[in-house]
Amino acid sequence: MKKRIVSDYILTGFFWASGLFVLLVLAAILMYIIWRGGPSISMEFIFGSPAGYPLGSEGGIWPAIIGTLRLVLLALIFAAIPGLITAIYLSEYGGYSSLARSINLLIQSMMGLPSIVIGLFVYALCVVELRWGISLLAGGVALSIMIFPVIVIFSRDALRAVSNEYRLAGRSMGVADTYTLRRLILPRAAPGILAGILLALGYAAGATAPIMVTAAAIIAGSSGVLLEPVMALPYHLYILFNEHMSLDNAYGTALVLVAMLVFVNALALWLQHIQERTNTR
Amino acid sequence: MKSKREKPFIAGVTTIAVLSSLLLLGMVFFMFRESLPIWSDIGVFQFLTGTTWRPVAAEPIMGIAAMLVSTLWVALGALVIAAPIGFGCAIFMAEFAPRSLAAVIRPVLNMLTGIPSVVYGFLGAAVLVKYFEATFDLASGESLFAASLVLAIMILPFIIANSEAALRAVAPQIRYAGLSLGVSRQYYTVHILVPMARKGMIGALVLGLGRAMGETMAVLMLAGNTLLLPISWFSKGEPLSALIALEIGSATPGTAHYQALFAAGLVLVVLVITVNLMMNTILAGLKR
User: Fold this and answer.
1) Chain B residues with beta carbon closer than 8 angstroms to that of A125
2) Nearest-CB residue to A82 (from B20, B190, B272)
3) Is B231 helix (H, G, I), strand (E, B) or coil?
4) Other Cβ atoms closer than 10 A to B194
């Protein structure tokens, strides 16, 4: 009996330790980045252009911030509509048909696709064969392929969470299914869909592998021309560190990137919370 | 009501859904087409088991065994490190944690998945690798082990979230029945709860494995990037994802080197998709 009690204590200790470990890891990561990156942050760092020799060892990261925003926006333009439509098909029309199940499986597999493979594909198709070169457009395409399944899965689940009563009510009132979808179901799924889009945005903003082979340049202006290379925050961080340009600026860049993503993720979590509240009444 | 105007709408929605999900098959086919000369000239077996990678030599020799082994070693290593902590944390959240603490851990896990891999790689390289160098007096601290360690933290949230879901899916009646027999909560957890949730927890691990194999930036910055066959966890290596990222920009389109990188990409995709399908089978078996 004594032995049992001792082993119970050890187990409880282990479970608590692993739970607290996760909290500790996030706290350590955030605090360390803030501690090391904080001193680099200034108006000049955020709104300035890279300077010094080699270029980037001093100065700011504004072109990288703008580049990342442009890439993410482009990815969203390409992926949001098809993603939402696929989600509507899966939740409203597909049912348990074998077609819907196959699409589900394909989307699920796409979610697991390594991001570098997407980069490789877009590199061969867009950069080489279509002769776009390393460009903002190619990067947008790569990121859109990456976030497409994320948008589908979150929108699908948000739509499915809407109570069936609304669909039945629509039917019994004799209105068209499209009307029910537009006026009753989509509004109730909107927070969840928006949360999914935000998560996808954050995912795209942090992705490095797909853009390092399709879009990113060490130094580029912020012209916004679709067929020119762009700077991007995650790639800038990689270069600053890997080419030993400036460790301080690398920590500063990491802090800006992480702060942006934590904000976007927190917003998405809040929207998901709203979605759950509106649909559990 | 299904009016006449609905039909074209449904047809349109279905078409778009089919077309966008066919993208995956299109990608796999495209990569197969690009890499076809490799499979026919070198052969599948030779390409997978060759340990020499000299793509730009006068007579190119291309085998990806070293990278394949690195990919598997790094990913399985990460799994070994992450599994006990991940399961521990999932059990903690499902059974032991006060509700308020679980409500804090859940968003924290979301935040951890939101941190991009380049940041993990950067912190790993700037802090962990430097620490290894200083402590063990190494010339360079990069190794498969360092990559596994950082990958473990990256896949932890996925393992925890999915295992917790599996644990919570166990029917409450079983819990009452177990506890009413007078066994301790710990005994109930180890001998009743976890065995019941076993399949879902294994599924969570497999999902983590798929993620770890496809990861690029963290392994690129931490694994050391040498083309030799790794002989231990503490050797350097260059996983497939890192190989592609490093070489695709400099490979001339149409050359054997370029095609070989697509062959490597295809191998990676097949690995990851196999793992994902495995998970689907495990989860499907669970529902029955």
Assistant:
1) 30
2) B20
3) coil
4) 19
The secondary structure element, H or E, covering residue B222 is helix B217-222
Average pLDDT by stretches of 10, chain A with 281 residues: 73 84 87 87 79 74 87 92 89 82 85 89 87 86 92 90 81 80 82 90 90 81 74 88 82 90 90 80 55
Name the residue among A77, A70, A72, A82 with its Cα closest to residue A110. A82
Please identify among residues 163-202 of chain B the ones whose CB lies closer than 8 Å to any CB of chain A.
184-187, 189-190
Domain ranges of chain B: 61-287
Question: How many whole angstroms separate alpha carbon A109 and alpha carbon A118?
Answer: 13
* Chain A contact present for B265, CB below 8 A: yes
Taking CB atoms and an 8 Å cutoff, what residues of chain A touch B157? Answer: 22
CA distance A132 to chain B (A): 14
Question: Which chain A residues contact residue B34 at CB under 8 A?
Answer: 124
CATH code, residues B61-287 = 1.10.3720.10
Question: Measured between CB atoms, does A31 come within 8 Å of chain B?
Answer: no
pLDDT tens digits along B47-83: 888 778 888 777 778 888 888 888 999 999 999 999 9
In this complex, do A14 and B86 lie within 8 Å of one another by their Cβ atoms? no
3-state secondary structure of A230: strand
With CA atoms as reference, the chain A residue closest to B267 would be A117
A250 touches chain B (CB under 8 A): yes
pLDDT digits (tens, 9 = 90+) for B85-139: 999 889 888 888 888 888 888 888 888 888 899 999 999 888 888 888 888 877 7
Q: In angstroms, rounded to a whole number, what is the distance separating the alpha carbons of residues A149 and A190?
A: 18
Rounded to two decimals, the pTM is 0.89
Of B162, B150, B161, nearest to B212 by C-alpha is: B150
